[in-house]
Amino acid sequence: MPDLDRVERTLSHLWQAPYRLLKGNQSAEIVAEGLVRSVAAELREQGGVPEFELFLQACIAPEQRSEPVRTLSDVSHFIEQRFGQVRKIKLLSSAARRVQAKVVAGRVLPAPSQLASEFLRTLIRHHFFAKVTLRLVGEKRRFKDVTEAREFERRIWLGS
Length: 160
What we know:
Elements: H1 16-23, H2 28-46, H3 52-60, H4 72-83, H5 87-105, H6 112-132, H7 146-159
Helix pairs in contact: 1-2, 2-7, 4-5, 5-6
């Protein structure tokens, strides 16, 4: 069996194509295109993110909460209690914390599109990079070290 046919067992079938592209020494642009197709397929399979609007309201409208919220951790806890402990909500909560940190630092303006963009990045990190990057680092592998792998990932993010 050729080496490119061996796909990580923990990787969902939706993410195998970009893995093969990455392992096959394709450019960052080509791998990014594969990731876009995979994230779209992932969202279709999950039925989208119907909780996004309610989640956004919970983040934006603190006056609607019964208890005071002081920190990003409190917001995450409130949201996970309200919407459940499912993976999609945890990833959305994580994305909200990162967006809020960027807003506080003055790097972005608060907007629903920021949360949507960060959620998609979080989805890609969770389903793809967290599972495959370290497997492709080492002797006779795609990347000689983690720094090179992270640089490739950075090029993907810059191109998207």
